[in-house]
Design goal:
The structure holds 2 protein chains of 2 kinds.
Chain A lengths: L3 E4 L2 E4 L4 E8 L5 E7 L6 E7 L2 E5 L6 E7 L2 E7 L7 E8 L8 E2 L3 E5 L1
Parallel strand pairs in A: 2-11
Antiparallel strand pairs in A: 1-3, 3-8, 4-5, 4-9, 5-6, 7-8, 9-10, 9-11
Chain B lengths: L3 E4 L2 E5 L4 E7 L6 E7 L6 E7 L4 E4 L2 E6 L4 E6 L8 E7 L9 E2 L3 E6 L1
Classes of the chains: A mainly beta, B mainly beta.
């Protein structure tokens, strides 16, 4: 089973709202990722957690706040977003790191009004 | 850092014909090269991958070839079907880039029935 699940599938929020995206995997993977993807573009890496510790933060604005409560769960907390933050947010996981295969979830389509 | 270029950006083929997508990379330390297929509204799905100790890998109608000397790798799809229509992304990574994948810019493949 190579399934990564994400909730919600769609999210519409105002610029003053606070919301969270959730990601879950039960493959025993120890690395989890958040990506942002704009239309017709490749995924852009935002954050990487390795063994539940934040290992990469690609200079993402503080209005995005990641959290890894345990090895199976990954959250992305959103606050005071801008319309340009509207995108597909993808979660992925891999066995460990260093060139391991990454498996992606279906994504959350976020629209910021 | 690594730079991955992907060509062509769009590709149209008749059903039953073959499709070839090419990627080049810059970092000779890269040793893992996955290919992802992304259908509209879905997350990227791994379709095939290759490591640098192998020159070619096949899985039914899909094959990937790697030329380490020239630093390029290609995706070959034979006997294309309409359901092959999607955006395809190549990526490169190495143990030295940790968990980071470097993606190509994507190829939008259309298979005409």
């Amino acid at each position: 089973d190579t399934e990564v699940t994400q909730t919600p599938k769609h999210l519409v929020m105002g610029m003053t709202n606070k919301k969270s995206l959730k990601c879950e995997q039960h493959m025993g993977h120890r690395a989890m990722y958040w990506y942002k993807q704009k239309a017709k573009k490749p995924p852009e890496l935002m954050f990487v957690y390795s063994y539940e510790k934040l290992s990469i933060n690609e200079s993402v604005p503080s209005r995005f706040s990641p959290e890894c409560p345990n090895s199976s769960l990954l959250n992305l907390h959103l606050h005071a977003l801008q319309p340009e933050d509207s995108a597909l947010y993808l979660c992925a996981s891999s066995q460990d790191g260093g060139g391991d295969t990454q498996y992606f979830g279906p994504g959350t389509r976020l629209t910021v009004l | 850092g690594e730079n991955v270029e992907q060509h062509p950006s769009t590709l149209s083929v008749q059903e039953g014909d073959s499709a070839v997508i090419k990627c080049t990379y810059s970092d000779s330390a890269s040793n893992y090269f996955p290919w992802y297929k992304q259908e509209l509204g879905k997350g990227p799905q791994l379709i095939i991958d290759i490591r640098s100790n192998v020159g070619e890998k096949k899985d039914q109608r899909i094959a990937v070839t790697l030329n380490k000397t020239a630093k390029h790798f290609s995706l070959h799809i034979t006997e294309t079907q309409p359901e092959d229509s999607a955006v395809y992304f190549c990526a490169a990574s190495s143990q030295y880039t940790g968990n980071q994948f470097y993606f190509g810019t994507g190829t939008s493949l259309t298979v005409i029935p």
